[in-house]
Design goal:
The protein is an alpha+beta fold and about 300 residues long. The chain is built from 8 helices and 15 strands. The chain is about 25% helix and about 25% strand. The strands form 4 sheets. Strands 1-2-3-13-5-15-4 form a 7-stranded mixed β-sheet, covered by helices on one side. It has a 3-stranded antiparallel β-sheet with strand order 12-6-14. Strands 8-7-11 form a 3-stranded antiparallel β-sheet.
Length: about 300
């Protein structure tokens, strides 16, 4: 496997490896090491179907079950271990402009971290490009949250060190005016606690853990907490911390949710964009169940 950096701070291109076949322990270890260093790896010129993508992802941990949308007559297009990051219905046609699935997915264009709205969030995500928009667009941008943390001043680092944030998928959707959740979705996706600063286990570097799913900071008045989150997100998504991935046919991109944020970019919703994601669970929560809550 050959590694070529794509950005001065993080992100790299991986060539000379076929991730659709069985990998050796040495290859798996090499990918882990590269992920600890670069946090985002773009595997080029891959031929991969859903089953092979799941098999590759499972080398790095157990797969999450994709989030369920509770709608009468809704038929998922993919296996429950796959997340459908496309604009397609179950027949393979582009979704109508008012389809709840498309409206819900617009929140993917906000800066976020996969599954931070779950008590046990995501470790890695693996996204495979099947069909790309004919008219271009649809890039995925990544932000280096370790470098962003490193560049904070000492006073800010001390202030936020022990903050715990409240994450909910409702926060990110409601920012865009999407509130069409039924009772099953609301009760099944209740808010969870996540640390704001975490230590990345592979590199031992500290990282900001932010997402559009975060709506408040425990112990702070809501406006103060939200302003803190806005300030930190603006800092962490400055151009110097961001890598924009322009997709090519055959690309598979893997990223570490523990030390990056990402967002999708615009493309014509009438153009087919078929992307399929597997998500590796981090297996442990960032906040223990019995951790005391900070009083306001």
């Amino acid at each position: 496997m050959k590694i070529t950096p794509l950005h001065p701070l993080f992100a790299a291109e991986a060539t000379g490896i076929d991730i659709s076949v069985d990998l050796t322990p040495d290859q798996i270890a090499e990918i882990r090491e590269a992920m600890d260093t670069y946090a985002v790896l773009a595997f080029r010129e891959q031929t991969i179907d859903d089953a092979r993508q799941r098999r590759f992802s499972e080398y790095f941990g157990p797969l999450e079950t994709s989030r369920k949308l509770h709608r009468k007559g809704y038929v998922p297009r993919l296996d429950t271990k796959m997340s459908d990051i496309s604009n397609l219905d179950e027949t393979g046609r582009p979704l109508a402009k008012d389809d709840f699935r498309l409206l819900n997915m617009y929140a993917n264009r906000l800066w976020h971290t996969d599954s931070s709205f779950k008590r046990i969030p995501a470790r890695y995500s693996v996204l495979a490009a099947h069909v790309l928009p004919r008219g271009g667009g649809g890039n995925t941008e990544f932000a280096d949250m370790r470098a962003a943390y490193d560049d904070l001043d000492g006073a800010t680092k001390a202030r936020i060190e022990n903050y715990v944030c409240i994450h909910s998928i409702m926060n990110s959707r409601e920012r865009l005016g999407y509130t069409d959740f039924d009772e099953g979705e609301r009760t099944g996706l209740s808010p969870v606690r996540q640390v704001l600063v975490r230590t990345h286990p592979g590199s031992q570097r500290k990282s900001l853990y932010l997402a559009s799913h975060a709506g408040s900071i425990e112990g702070l008045p809501v406006p103060e907490g939200r302003m803190t989150l806005i300030d930190l997100t603006e800092h962490a998504t400055q151009p110097k911390y961001v890598y924009s991935h322009a997709w090519r046919p055959g690309d598979v991109v893997m990223w570490d949710n523990r030390c990056t944020m990402h967002r999708g970019r615009w493309h014509d919703p009438g153009d087919i964009r078929d992307m399929r994601r597997t998500t590796v669970s981090d297996e442990i929560p960032t906040v223990s169940e019995d951790a005391p809550r900070r009083a306001g």
